[in-house]
Structure formats: structure tokens, C-alpha cells
């Protein structure tokens, strides 16, 4: 038996733009269904918002997205920052993407960092050949890193 976990992100009217942006970063195919597709009258505000959205790529990247009905357009402010070598945040989760090479992760980082707030620049760390943290323009905080080589004892 096996299971798959998929990060499901909630947005306030910009799930489609977020999925399109993530597709430009990670590749893959999107599936988008709107509230209007499920029968909401097209003239009702929010009918074109995403009720089910998914991006799935051959490289293993997968994320789902949803527009919260009736949510205000401006999300509450969140803060993630580094202080004295630790991460301080009010967010309940981060999205983590791990690659096998620095070149692979650097390519994702370069695209994901456009318009982002950089929390920790992508660089070598004590546990990884490359680690970085940023909050993208949609308010999602990402950790990108390179899997460290494991040396069996």
C-alpha cells in the first residue's frame, strides 16, 4: 500500500494566477474547475474563481489550489523572517521542495524568487549543499533545498 500527500493551498481569488505561476516554475499540467463550472451563475461575483485546481508535473511536483468563497481579496499579513539563526513565523506551514542537485534547485529558485521576499538566500548550509527560504508574491513560504548525500555507516 502507498499514499501520496499533496499540498492544498487556499487563496483569496488568485488561485488561477498562482497555479499558472507555479506551472511556469515547475512545469506540468494544470486542471482548473471554477464555481461557475459547477453551476454557479456566471454573473455572480466569484463564479470564475477556482473551486478545484491542481498542477501536476512529471518531475514529481504536485500542488492543489482553491479560492476561499467570500474571502476578502487582501490576505491577512504574515511574517516569516530569520533572527539570530532561527526562523520566526506566524504561518502554520511551509511548502518544501527538495531536489537532487544544486543546479536543479537553483533553476526552480530563480523562477520562484521573482517578486518574492527572500528570507534565507539559496546557499550551502551545514546540512545541505543548497538551502533557501522565500515567501512568494502569493504569500506562500517555500523552502528549497538539495538532498544531502547519505553515507551508510
Fold blueprint:
Blueprint (H helix, E strand, L loop, with lengths): L6 E5 L3 H12 L2 E6 L15 E7 L5 E6 L12 E4 L2 E4 L5 E5 L2 H11 L4 E7 L7 E5 L5 E6 L7
Number of strands: 10
Number of domains: 2
Largest β sheet strand count, sense and barrel closure: 4 strands, mixed
Strand portion: 35-45%
Strand order of the largest sheet: 1-4-3-2
**How confident is the prediction overall: mean pLDDT?**
91
Number of contiguous helices: 2
The low-confidence runs, each spanning 5 or more residues with pLDDT under 50, are none
Q: What is the succession of H and E elements?
A: EHEEEEEEHEEE
Please tell me what the overall shape is. Answer: globular
Radius of gyration computed on alpha carbons: 17 Å
The CA-CA distance between the termini, in Å, is: 29 Å
Query: Would you give the CATH topology of the largest domain?
Result: Signal recognition particle alu RNA binding heterodimer, srp9/1
Helix content: 10-25%
- The CATH class of the largest domain is Alpha Beta
Q: From the 3D coordinates, which CATH architecture of the largest domain would you assign?
A: 2-Layer Sandwich
Helix-strand category: alpha+beta
Features of this protein?
single chain; 153 residues; alpha+beta; 2,3-Dihydroxybiphenyl 1,2-Dioxygenase, domain 1; Signal recognition particle alu RNA binding heterodimer, srp9/1; 2 domains; 2 helices; 10 strands; globular
